[in-house]
Each structure stands twice: as structure tokens, then as C-alpha cells.
Amino acid sequence: MRLVIAGGHGKIALLVERLLAARGDSATALVRNPDHFADVADAGGVPVHCDLEAADAASVAEYLAGADAALFAAGAGAGSGTARKDTVDRGASALFAQAAELAGVRRFVQVSSTGIGRTTGDDAFDAYLRAKGAAEEDLRERDLDWTVLRPGRLTDDEPTGRVEVVEAPATVRGSVPRADVAAVLVALLDRPGTVRRTYEVVSGDTPVDEAF
Known about the structure:
Blueprint: E1 2-6, H1 11-22, E2 26-31, H2 37-42, E3 46-49, H3 57-64, E4 69-72, H4 82-103, E5 107-111, H5 123-140, E6 145-151, E7 153-155, E8 162-167, E9 175-177, H6 178-189, E10 197-203, E11 206-207
Parallel strand pairs: 1-2, 1-4, 2-3, 4-5, 5-6, 6-10, 7-9
Antiparallel strand pairs: 8-10, 8-11
């Protein structure tokens, strides 16, 4: 498998790259800052310079050409303003999905968030949830074999290998290590039966390999 990852230097993306490299698959990582190339290479990925806030769909499609799947794992990140929540968490997702269509890459997995449709009173976080929700809506209208994964509160704890997965509109509350989310994403890529479905995931009792 050759996977192309948007947000290729993110914590989850680097973990996915390590998992794929360990089993002999490859990941091309779209990275905004060339200073991060070494981290991606150390994780087993192939870094390429691509700023999704400045690129157009045709140029991004060139990186996707010949790939087996695409993973959107980019995010504006903590501390970013509401404007970047829209340009990255929504806009970059839509651009990446459009590029996948242009490149003929049908399998598309998107990292979203639990709490879609909820209002918390935190302006920045609510803007993030709105952007993620809009990105999901955009993806569902596209002719792609998409799957959306909504993790709970992310931690850097050691992986447990066990999760609780529910299919939307069911919801779950809780936290989950990024390493377990990465394992779930790899599992989703391997399972065509998850196409056009939306899942929420937190830590639980079910082994990742049995979650779907």
C-alpha cells in the first residue's frame, strides 16, 4: 500500500507512518515546513513540501498520483485562531479530497473529532468543531470511498491496543492515546467494509483488530 498523508508531520501521522513502514508499506507525507522532513524520514515516511493553505488541487493531485489511499490528518493545531480552523480543518480537507478525486484515488480516510454539532462556549474549540463538521459534510458529497474517524480527547499515553468504537450517530465520550488512533486508522485502510461510514473512538476493551 502507498498512502498519502495530509498533515504528515502531525503526531498521529508520524505514528501511522511508523506502523506502515513496519509492515512494508509506504507513506508519502505532505509537510508544510521543510524543517520537519527529518522527523518524517525517521518515522519511515517520504516527506514532500506542500502547504495545503497555499496549494491548488491540481498540484496536490500530482503527489497523490498512483497512491492506493489518502489520509487527511492535518489540523490548525492548538493556539491557532478561528480563521485557520476554517482554512485548515475545513478548507485543506476539501482541497485534499478534491485532489484525490482528480488523481483517481478513491480510498479516503479523514480524521475528525467527537463532539461534532456540539457547542461548548469556547470560541476557538467551537470554530474547530464547526470546521470539522463542514469538512465531513463536504466529504460525504464526493465520489470517494471515504471513512470518517472521530477520536475522543487525544493523549500521548502509551497505546493499550484496546478501544471502544461506535458508528455515528451513536456517540462516545472519553480519551484515547494517539498511538491507538493511528492503529485504528491503519485498520480502517485495510477494511473496505468501513467505506461511507463514520466512527467515533475512545479507549475501551476491544482489541483494535476486532473493532470493525
